[in-house]
Prior knowledge:
This protein is an all-alpha fold. Helices cover 84% and strands 0% of the residues. The protein has helices at 3-36, 39-47, 49-70, 74-107, 120-139, 142-172, 177-209. Helix 1 packs parallel to helix 4 and helix 2 (39-47) packs antiparallel against helix 4. The model has no long low-confidence stretch (mean pLDDT 92).
Amino acid sequence: MTLFFEKELDKMKKHILSLGAMVEERLRLAIQAIADGDLQIAESVIKLDYEIDEKEVEVEEECLKILALYQPVAVDLRFIVAVIKINNDLERIADEAVNIAERVANITGKQDDVFRFDYSHMAAIVEDMLKKSLDALVNLDVDVAFKVVTLDDEVDDLHASAYDLIKNEMLKTPEQAGSLINLYLISRHLERIADHATNIAEEVIYLVEGEIVRHGNY
Length: 218
């Protein structure tokens, strides 16, 4: 391939890593909003979502331009296809961070005796999964990617635990149903972020090994 093609690939890599850093920061803020019940932080996550959307479109356009102009094959084609998929997963993670922020905003300011669920452990794992998936992408590290995949089951278990606890609380205090539903949905959004981080890790495995490992085909 030409020098111009290599430059375009490098630019695309920088764009996807820049998007990854932006999404990591949005997730960090959403998790902070959960922990602190901070309405101002939650609102900032919601208001700045357009930045992620614009960056996601920019990355996709770069990928499509490279496909049209250079018609890459083999490893280069696999990389571009992986980036297109990872780009979509990153945008979806940012959307879930916005969803979390909206749930926090709905709960914040409600009466003090509303049941609270400690999401710190689940959130820490989800945040680590996203970081590891992006590290795996940067370093093309299959071992780190597989670590992300194995963590997904732990998040699923924590999500199930949150559901059981919040459901029981709803039976005891049905008058708090609205706040409790929002509280439960935070768990659902975190679980979905873990799924998207797993998707990114699986794309890294595909990129490096040329093997599709979705649907538990490890």
